[in-house]
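Dear colleague,

Thank you for sharing your sequence with our group. We've completed the structure prediction you requested, and as agreed, I am returning the results in plain text so they can be pasted directly into your records. Please verify that the sequence below matches your submission; if there's any discrepancy, let me know and we will rerun it promptly.
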Amino acid sequence: MKKADVLFNKVYRIMEIILVSIFGLLVIDVLGQVFSRYILNTSFAFTEELARFSLIWLSVLGAAYLNGKREHLSMDFLYQKFSGSTKKKILLFIELCIFLFALIVMVIGGFNLVYTTLHLGQLSGTLRIPLGYIYAILPVSGLLIMLFSVYHTIKINANEIID
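Please find the predicted structure tokens below.
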């Protein structure tokens, strides 16, 4: 196994641990919210906001993870009709589009969002966390998607990925 494969397998494993931890936090938070409302007849103010932020991180980081594993949703009925060399060109074009989307929307747009919210000092309503920290998952996930795109492009060129 190549060094790049070993590195990316470690990245996937770290991402799995982070995603499972966020999901566990989300489950505990929602169960605590339900328990406090129906058993204690009171509601903790922070649980709804914590659940919202956990879901944002879980969704965006989960999208990067699925992209890295090439398990994202795709419609391939047209793609399957092409020959091997055309499939390779289409896969490379798709990886280029994914890379550019991650760069422009997630990384550049995400950094702009993080900078703006931190510069303005916007805080979350209940937890009083700077919103820039919550939005920081966008450029981080965008960078991961870009790295995965480069990795997939290398694998496609080496004929290791042909779906």
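Summary note from our side: The chain has a mean pLDDT of 92.

Kind regards,
the structure core
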